[in-house]
Design goal:
Protein name: Protein LOL4
Subcellular location: Nucleus
Keywords: Nucleus
Mean pLDDT: 77
Structural class: mainly beta
Pfam family, one: zf-LSD1
Helix content: under 10%
Strand content: 35-45%
Radius of gyration: 18 Å
Low-confidence stretches: 116-120
Organism: Zea mays
Length: about 150
């Protein structure tokens, strides 16, 4: 028996044997993990190298295409997000590697980046503002709960 899934790299429909851990795409050579019947896939995140948007992806993905700028980002390139807890309001913040400070969008406190090994529970990300259909500036804030293991 065979099943189909969307390639994690090029989004092309790829056929694979049921029970297999995943499949390597013949077009782009990306490995895509098959759906886990025992539960949802473990998730991870990275920062887009083109527009610096945080992207969430399944841990089995080799590449992630940014929906904003279209850049194909490798999950193996070491651009995973760091996390820290805001020193003022305790909101968990995500930041790209190399950041020395992180501004909290909730309380506007500027936090120095230190060793942030504690597993996050809530992640708040403020993406660049966009224009709505009337031309007004709209905030783009995402809040999530991290349920994956580090």
């Amino acid at each position: 028996m065979h099943s189909h899934l969307a390639c994690s790299g090029c989004k092309r429909l790829v056929q694979y044997r049921r029970g297999a851990a995943g499949v390597r795409c013949p077009s782009c050579d990306a490995f895509t993990a098959a759906a886990n019947p025992s539960g949802p896939p473990e998730m991870s995140e990275l920062v887009c190298g083109g527009c610096f948007t945080m992207l969430v992806h399944s841990r089995g993905a080799a590449n992630v295409r940014c929906p904003h700028c279209g850049r194909l980002n490798s999950t193996r390139s070491g651009n995973q997000m760091g996390h820290l807890s805001c020193g003022q309001c305790r909101t968990t913040l995500a930041y790209p590697p190399g950041a020395t400070t992180v501004g909290c969008p909730t309380c506007r406190n500027v936090n120095p980046v230190r060793d942030a090994r504690a597993a996050p529970q809530t992640v708040l990300v403020e993406n660049p503002r966009t224009l709505d259909e009337k031309g007004k500036l709209v905030s783009n804030v995402a809040v999530g709960v991290a349920s994956w293991k580090r």
